[in-house]
Hints:
Layout (H helix, E strand, L loop, with lengths): L18 E3 H14 L3 E5 L2 E3 L12 E5 L2 E2 L3 E2 L4 E2 L2 E2 L4 E2 L2 E2 L4 E2 L3 E2 L4 E2 L32 E4 L4 E2 L3 E2 L4 E2 L5 E4 L4 E2 L3 E2 L4 E2 L2 E3 L4 E2 L3 E2 L4 E2 L2 E2 L4 E2 L3 E2 L5 E2 L2 E3 L4 E2 L2 E3 L4 E2 L5 E3 L4 E7 L9 E2 L4 E7 L10 E2 L7 E3 L6 H8 L7 H13 L3 H16 L4 H14 L5 H21 L3 E2 L10 H9 L11 E2 L3 H30 L1
Parallel strand pairs: 1-3, 2-4, 3-5, 4-8, 6-10, 7-11, 8-12, 9-13, 10-14, 11-15, 12-16, 13-17, 14-18, 15-19, 16-20, 17-21, 18-22, 19-23, 20-24, 22-26, 23-27, 24-28, 25-29, 26-30, 27-31, 28-32, 29-33, 30-34, 32-35, 34-36, 35-37, 36-38, 37-39
Antiparallel strand pairs: 40-41
Amino acid sequence: MARIRGSRRARRTTALSGTVEAAAIVAAITAEGASGTGALRFEGLRVIGSLDLGQRRVETRIALVDCVFEEPVDLVGLAAPALDLSGSSLPALRADHLSVDGEVRLAGARLGGGTALSRPMTDPSASGTGMRAPRRMTEGTATGALQLADARIGGNLVLDGLTVADSGAWSLLAPRLTVGGSLHARELTASGSLYLRDARVTYAVNLHAADVGGIDATGLVCSGGFYADWGFRSSGQVLLRAAEVGGVVTFHDAVLAEPAGALLLSRLRVPRLRLDLREPPAGQVVLQDAAVDVLVDSEATWPAPGRLTLEGFAYQRLETERPVEVGSRVAWLTRDPRAGAGAFEQLARSYESRGDERAARTVRHARERHLSRHDRLSGRLWGYVQDVLFGYGYAPRRALVWLLSLVAAGSLWFAHHPPRPVGADGRRAWDPVLYSLDLLVPFGGLGYRGSWDPAGASKAVALVLVVAGWTLATAVVAGARRVLGRG
């Protein structure tokens, strides 16, 4: 018998080998645990019968490495310094309320007696006849191949290379799990979903290259980071609703695959969020009411139109590996069919924060166009007029162009078709430019409008200039009020 890595206590040997009764292991652990000396390591055993160490407290570090258990292992309520089940094969591990001062290791272990057929977690309201796992469960009735409800682990929880092949919906059932170190689950393979609601992890959750049916980590609190990246794959929903992560949440190079791969991140709080996936997600991405400092994404892997929810999403800065044009970023917003003024204003402020005022104006202009499409017919027509004349107030030079164009057109007409003067004093010299300008400007006057009387076609041209002037002035005032009001 060898001592467990990191232990400086004396080693104790055992004669157990080959096929053994579970009761013999329990007796050895109990005897060693009572003395509080050394660490027990069992390796390569085939265990028959039910190994039950529930509701016990032992002072011995327990290692059952590369063992094969014919029946589920019961560690409910066990208190121990450390636990190592690396490389072992178990039908199930029941370890609710487990209390371990150091590490719990299941690296390379195998749980479950079924096949690795994926059972993706989907929305309970989703239609279809395929295999579906419920997103909500009733504690006390639901079971999982690995159960760690209310468990407390002082060190790391190491699930690297763990394989869970079970017919149940939940591969890991660990609500309110507390981990004093990190949760390592690199290259974990699970046919079902991971249930980590209200879990507390002091450092990081590492799911590099893991393959799961879904994750429910609603209410997770993690001081370090949540790393579902570099080949991470989920065929079901990943929920981080109302989670609080101190470092980064990253899905870089992750795959949210068919049939139900989706991200539900509403009310997430994290400084940095990476959504630069390997490919576009199969399902939706919900960022409603989430708050981040930096969002990193990729235009090539944005969700399909209608599968993005951004309302209430707050961010300070957007980052991409390749530059994204402001027009493309506006199209990103409109992939949310319910995107309102707030989503556009959030994007405009992010451009302003980095000094790009032109892009901010472009976004606000696009906002007015987007909102106008959902207005009544009269509102849509009036919005179209404002857009054409001066871009809802965000393209003021367009109004000047219209004014100069109308003045030029009127001047050209009246230069060849001068109206007759009113009265016979002849004190005011004829000027087609000033006359056209006086017709266009609805307020004040230059004195030319009343001094000349157009007739025939010239009267129609004069009427067009007057109406155009009033329309242009009204649109400019309305646009200015809108800009100032929303600013």
